[in-house]
From TrEMBL:
Cross-referenced Pfam families: SRP54, SRP54_N
Alphabetized InterPro entries for the sequence: AAA+_ATPase (IPR003593), P-loop_NTPase (IPR027417), Signal_recog_particl_SRP54_hlx (IPR013822), SR_rcpt_FtsY (IPR004390), SRP/SRP_N (IPR036225), SRP54_GTPase_dom (IPR000897), SRP54_N_sf (IPR042101)
Domain Signal recognition particle SRP54 helical bundle positions: 9-87
Subcellular location: Cell inner membrane; Cell membrane; Cytoplasm
Protein's membrane topology: Peripheral membrane protein
Subunit description: Part of the signal recognition particle protein translocation system, which is composed of SRP and FtsY. SRP is a ribonucleoprotein composed of Ffh and a 4.5S RNA molecule.
Originating gene: ftsY
Protein name (Swiss-Prot/TrEMBL): Signal recognition particle receptor FtsY
Enzyme class, UniProt record, top EC level: hydrolase
Nucleotide-binding among keywords: yes
Catalytic reaction annotation: GTP + H2O = GDP + phosphate + H(+)
Domain SRP54-type proteins GTP-binding: 102-303
Length: 309
């Protein structure tokens, strides 16, 4: 991974890392008695890492294999190891292996999460890997979503299937799969409505899309990706809960890790749901959404990255 990507990761997780380092400040060097362990655990929860990871770090520190007056850096190294063990289980790029083609990827997420832009970035990522990509504007609820996705399709040079505002999303998906199959497209990325206010309506629409896809290809959709906005912190976790129920989420993409984000929620989501996290977004450019290395991100979050300036 290029150094510039590493620098963007440093920037993207800076708030999380600074917060964690600040919350642990002063706790190193003290005896690791129950009171200090309580403070360390609370500091990690306050850093959005989640109670599960915080509890595991506490358990590691209490095992007695560490010096009883462990320095702060040593505590952060334990945090890095525990975070890595969580993230290593979920850091998995999307494999384009569907046969017959296309591999159909439904993208879901609440309006405002960066869903449409993330679709464009995913398309760009697949184009870099020499896959042929098509988009389908299945969020017919918002004219702006259709227009925005068309603009992105033109900008990155991929075909797109659209319909009128308020049109039948399943019909658009049907047309898109037919076209993608005819021209030998590898990946079809489908935008979907993000209105969670009416869960039943959204569930019905997604179920209809699934039925249509099933008639054309019983294996489709091959992936159901939930786009999460990292700036929403713990609210992102409740979105996973709802969308898992409504849409059968198979993987996550975490966006807007831009330095203001509460990136610790990445760890909390991994620990609690164990869903694959296929990519993270750390900037506005097309190349700023990529698969991530669990060790690199863990060390940055824990503030022990050797290249940190």
């Amino acid at each position: 991974m290029s150094n510039s990507w590493h620098e963007k990761l440093l920037g993207g997780f800076r708030r999380t890392s600074d917060r964690l380092v600040g919350n642990l400040a002063g706790l190193g060097g003290a005896r690791l008695d129950e009171g200090t362990l309580d403070e360390i655990e609370e500091a990690l929860i306050a850093s959005d890492l989640g109670p599960e990871t915080a509890g595991r770090v506490r358990h590691r520190l209490s095992e007695g294999t560490f010096e009883r007056d462990m320095e702060e850096l040593g505590i952060r190294l334990v945090v890095a190891e525990e975070v890595e063990s969580v993230l290593a289980q979920v850091a998995r790029p999307i494999e384009i292996d569907a046969f017959p083609r296309p591999q159909v990827i439904l993208v879901i997420g609440v309006n405002g999460s960066g869903k449409t832009t993330t679709i464009a970035k995913l398309a760009h990522l697949f184009l870099e890997q020499d896959y042929a990509v098509m988009l389908a504007a299945g969020d017919t609820f918002r004219a702006a979503a259709i227009g925005q996705l068309k603009t992105w399709a033109e900008r990155i040079g991929v075909p797109i299937v659209t319909g009128p505002e308020g049109g039948d999303a399943a019909g658009i998906v049907w047309d898109a799969v037919k076209q993608a199959t005819a021209i030998g497209t590898d990946v079809l990325i489908v935008d979907t409505a993000g209105r969670l206010q009416n869960k039943r309506e959204l569930m019905d629409e997604l179920a209809k899309i699934r039925r249509v896809l099933g008639r054309l290809n019983p294996a489709a959709p091959h992936d159901v990706l939930l786009v999460l906005d990292a700036t929403t912190g713990q609210n992102a976790l409740s979105q996973i809960e709802v969308f898992k129920e409504v849409a059968g989420v198979t993987g996550l993409v975490m966006t807007k890790l831009d330095g203001t984000a509460r990136g610790g929620v990445l760890v909390a989501a991994a620990e609690r749901y164990a869903l694959p996290i296929h990519a993270i977004g750390v900037g506005e450019q097309m190349g700023d959404l990529r698969p991530f290395d669990a060790r690199e991100v863990s060390r940055i979050i824990a503030g022990v990255d050797t290249e940190r300036k």
